[in-house]
Amino acid sequence: MASNLSPAFAYIVVYVKDVAKSVAFYAKAFGYPVRRLDESHRWGELESGQTTIAFTPAHQHETDDLSGEVRMPQSSHEKNPVEVCFDYSDVDSAYKRAVENGAVPVSEPEDKEWGQKVGYVRDIDGIVVRMGSHVNSSKASH
């Protein structure tokens, strides 16, 4: 009997300047409940379904020596090498909520040729957040 060896995608870890501020920002701006904020403020998690969104400081002695230093963008012309993407049934309302709660507008929601409505903002660390409508993968062409 064959077993399924595909692992579950458990976490995405976002490196940020201030874990507590980022957890509070994502909860307010994007609507995710806080699952956990470590007392040390070196780890935070949002309740986001099957995959957890976790936050940790960009610079920490525990991992910098092991896996290298996190490089943050040096100007507004650079962006982080990760983009956080969220699906919403009402992208316009979600975009408005995010901006009203401190997200920096990048591109207002617009209908794309592949059938998705997409808008972009930056979070408080400058990370690009894509806010889009759900696209049925059988209809998507990209």
Automatic annotation (TrEMBL):
Region annotated Disordered, chain positions: 49-78
Transmembrane segments: none
Domain VOC: 8-134
InterPro entries: Glyas_Bleomycin-R_OHBP_Dase, Glyas_Fos-R_dOase_dom, GlyoxalaseI/FosfomycinResist, VOC_core
Pfam families: Glyoxalase (PF00903)
Record-given protein name: Dessication-induced 1VOC superfamily protein
Organism: Abeliophyllum distichum
